[in-house]
Amino acid sequence: MSLFTYYINGLSAKQHTGSKVVSDAYSGFLSEPQEVVFSTKLPPFGSSESKDANAYAYYYPPTNKDYQGPDNELPPLLVLSHGGPTSAASSVLQSKIQYWTSRGIAVADVNYGGSTGYGREYRERLYPHFGEVDVQDCCAAALYLADSGLVDRKRLSIMGGSAGGFTTLACLAFRPEVFAVGASLYGISDLEVLAKETHKFEAEYPVHLVGPYPEARAEYIRRSPLYSVDTLACPAIFLQGLEDKVVPPNQATLMVNALKEKGIRVAHIEFEGEQHGFRKSENIVRALEAQLYFFSQILGFETADQIDPVPIFNDPSAAN
Fold it and tell me: Left, alpha or beta for 117 (phi > 0: left; psi -120 to 50: alpha)?
């Protein structure tokens, strides 16, 4: 059984991941992306000098022909914050997104300011505002979809890996009023470590994203979620490879320990033999299922899948 058939509920049909042609067997199970344009703000935020602007996302509605959500409920939303941070979300078929939409959860894959594909000016919005523009746009996307009546305002979640994990944690730390829960996959929590220890190929990257180090050290500290756990009030799950050389595993451990001390529900799963990104199929599956299980416990819904429970700290009703 391939990962693709696993995500689409075990249907046995030819894979068409690189083509617009999808077998009839998958009709009614695949959510088609809808590009949305939403209003946002440009820095300096909270100032009269902040200007209105547009940002972009792909919205995937929940889709599963065999099931229907309750008539009196809007679906939860999962916001995806891509990595890079100057890469981009695309509309190509992604089985990981279909995993969520086929289980009743809407997805917004956000191309926040700084993403590639919308011109140089759009990409350079992130310079030197990493941890600000991306946070603003991910929050604006979620609130736009909620205000449009497409998703449940009280069940907004966010997930990202690497630089996207940093954006996720920054959203939870600096905009705690927006999201109910988040998931960080090998995410950065301390920008200063990135400036000091990043690999040679990206050694100058933080200079553009934040500022020269150590001259701008105060800004690195100010934008780091690790140093703002006092404002972080949202449950979160952390998934981390123990051989990660890009984002050291202790970045997740420090965040988990801080949340445990605050009494906030938190989960932490470490994968032996994994580096910056998960490669083994069993770990990819476990990471997805763990996120779904954790979200179900926080957002209050039951999973149709039989999923091994995830230990959740500070939650007496969860498996420990």
Answer: left
Distance (Å, whole) CA 185 – CA 277: 8
> How is the beta sheet containing 34-41 ordered, strand by strand?
34-41, 52-60, 106-111, 77-81, 156-161, 181-185, 236-241, 266-271
Distance CA 52, CA 107 (A): 24
What phi and psi values does residue 201 have, to the nearest 5 degrees?
Answer: -60, -35
Separation CA 61–CA 59 (nearest Å): 6
d(CA 74, CA 155): 9
Distance CA 235, CA 67 (A): 28
- The CA distance from 65 to 87, in Å, is 33
Q: Please check whether residue 112 is in contact with residue 81, taking contact to mean a CB–CB distance below 8 angstroms.
A: yes
Distance CA(157)–CA(142), nearest Å, equals 9
Task: Please give the single-letter amino acid code of residue 223.
Answer: R
- pTM here is 0.91
pLDDT along the chain (320 residues), means of 10: 41 44 73 97 92 97 92 96 95 95 97 97 97 98 98 98 96 97 95 79 82 96 94 94 88 93 96 91 95 97 92 76
Helices within 180-280 (DSSP H only): 191-197, 205-209, 217-223, 250-262
Helix (H, G, I), strand (E, B) or coil at 99: helix
